Amino acid sequence: MTGEVNEIIVVKQLPVIEEQLKSIKAQIQDKISKALVMECTEDNVKQIKAMRADLSKDFNFLESRRKEVKNRILAPYEQFERVYKSCVTDLFKEADQQLSNKISSVENHIKIQKTDEIKTYFKEYAANLDIDFITFEDMGLTVNLSTSVKSLKEQAKAFVDGVYESLCLIKSQPEETQAEILVEYKKTKDIAQAIYAVSSRHKAIESERKKAEESKAFDIKRSEAEARIDAVISENKVQPAEEVNADNTTMYEVEFRVRGSLEKLRKLKHYLVEGGYDYEQI
Taking the C-alpha atoms of 67, 72, 77 and 82 in order, what is their torsion angle to the nearest 10 degrees? Predict the structure, then answer.
């Protein structure tokens, strides 16, 4: 068919464009030289503007002629292209599209058959290992024409084996955390992340438990200290002080030892001073 096409598509006559561009070029260069050689001053700026406008006028005229020639040259080709599209391009494209659809239909059928076979194998193998929480879609397996069924089955087996190994690892963890880790693993399918999440959670809980115990122990010690102070106050014999204040109110003296942080002792001293208590440091 190539030889026949060579005879069918023939340019019978090349477009003939009559032009005298070389002589025009000399005229253009002469005009431009005369304009550029002049020095622009306040006295002749209007003259130079006129020369520039004249050059622009010449250029625009030649541009319009160029575009006209181009359109006249392209008109026959555009007509040829319309005929070519109708007689050749449209026919080949339509045929190619129909053939492509037929090929895709067959290839898609093959892919579906492969997918169904691998999916059945996946479910049976997972069930054999007593694993019921994973799906074929969890693998993200790409089934194409170039990959063999054997290779796809190997990938499915490797995925299920990985899940089984993760479950074995969960069983090796402390018994009290196994259920939690399994719950996390079912969410993420990532054993390392599941173990880390549960471990971090237990550490946080233990930290809060210790804080609560320490706070409770501190409250108990403080209550015991207050009770001992009250006991000392009630057990010590209260003796009248030698001095009597101005309004004849009887003064009493009580001795006790106080223990606490430096900050708390400072607050106690401030309280005694502000309260007008007569005290001395033992």
Answer: 100
The per-residue pLDDT for range 3-61, each reduced to its tens digit, is 554 555 555 554 445 556 777 788 889 999 988 988 888 888 999 999 999 999 999 99
**Rg (the chain; Cα; Å):** 51
Number of domains in the chain: 1
Distance separating alpha carbons of residues 196 and 190, to the nearest angstrom: 10
122: number of Cβ within 10 Å: 23
Query: Using the 8-state DSSP alphabet, how is residue 15 labeled?
Result: -
pLDDT computed for residue 68 by the predictor: 87
Classify residue 162: in a domain, yes or no: yes
User: What is the model's pTM?
Assistant: 0.54
| Residue 143, domain extent | 62-172
> 239 forms bridges with which residues in the sheet?
253
With respect to residue 74, please indicate whether it lies within any of the assigned structural domains. yes
In angstroms, rounded to a whole number, what is the distance separating the alpha carbons of residues 59 and 192? 76
DSSP label at 245?
Answer: -
